[in-house]
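Hi, here's the filled form for the chain we discussed.

Project: internal
Contact: R.S.
Residues: 275
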Amino acid sequence: MALPPHASTGQRIWHRCFQAICALVFVFLLLPIVVVIPISVSSSSLLNYPLPGVSLKWFEVIFQPYPWMLALQNSVVIACATTVLATVLGTLAAYGLTSIEFRFKPLVMALLISPMMVPLVITALAAYFLFARMGLAGTFTGMILAHTVLAVPFVVITVTATLQGFDRNMVRAAQSLGAPPLRAFFKVTLPLIMPGVISGAIFAFVTSFDEVVVALFIASPAQFTLPRQLFSGLRDNLDPSIVAIATLLIVISVSLMAVVELLRWRSEKLARTEA
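And the returned structure, exactly as it came back:
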């Protein structure tokens, strides 16, 4: 944010110091990523600098069927199923909470977002004991359900924020013209809040794709996800293939964040157009 022309000398100095602090924090967060990426193309099996040469052999290793591609396949399948389930449940919950007023609304909202506040270890342990009794521990169904519990709060928060600026008079207009509530939702409400729904779906996908604690508790070797396989590799056999897969995950994460930012920009543009 720019300073006003009449800012005092002290305000200008503080503004510059604040900018410098923000830049240092940014460098502190970004530096580990910058350091990791070059090692993924090292020709040596040692994780050190300077690089003896450049090679893509470690990327060839991670694209072998086992273990990395199997783990990636598991992660994609679980994350996609989690995204669909969490997006549907989270969108319906957000729509219901913003549509009506009732006495225990804050309590319901707190329960919905509680997985974000409860430590992951507790959630994973509870999921393990519950799914072990139900026979779902060590299954894809158990992993998907556990990840859905963790992903739903992100969808609820994102869609709820989108619905705060939604003009419900358009829904009333559609219903006055004879559209039943379900048709009005799919024809009027859903298209207008779609940027928020897609953003929530992306957050749900990333939450599931990057989750490792639940996988440590309830995943069998057949359900090892990519973060779970990374954890095993770091513990058992550290080599540059782990850095290569980490680089691949960085590229995926940056791409998804770019999509979220594009959706946010589009949503703001639509809001300005409607105004």
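Let me know if anything looks off before we file it.
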